[in-house]
Specification:
Pfam families: HSP20. By secondary structure, this protein is an alpha+beta fold. The chain has a single domain, classed as Immunoglobulin-like (Sandwich), CATH 2.60.40.
Length: 152
Amino acid sequence: MLNYKLSPLFNQWIGFDKLANNIQDDREEIGYPPYNIEKNDDNHYSITIALAGFTKEGLSIELEGPRLTIKGKPVLENTEIHYLHQGMVCKEFSLSFTLAEHMTVKKANFAYGLLQIQLERHIPESMQPRHITISDNSKQNSVLQDRSLDIK
């Protein structure tokens, strides 16, 4: 039997936590660039991407419908470098995330080699949970019983 890992799919869907938690059992291997997705509360999320060697000018963030795409192109020097060991990667990338309904990008900040994108869920008033009061029908029933006695 073939086993398919769905965890890479669910790490790209922000705001679908319950669905992802029910299906995802293990963590995926982190690709390039490494990133974290944090859930601050039910309506606030943040994505932090480690981008050593990038500048703000080499980054772009686009939101098209529910699709958030982050692209980066490093500005590389023309000098040829001979590495004895190269452990840091600085290459062009494109990351995409599918946002849940009513998710918006609040702001983006790039400092100290970290790109942080703040996301917020704005649920319309008509779709927010509301409290329904339950009336007490015992008083109405006693009034109806009194009326039925009057009719006889």
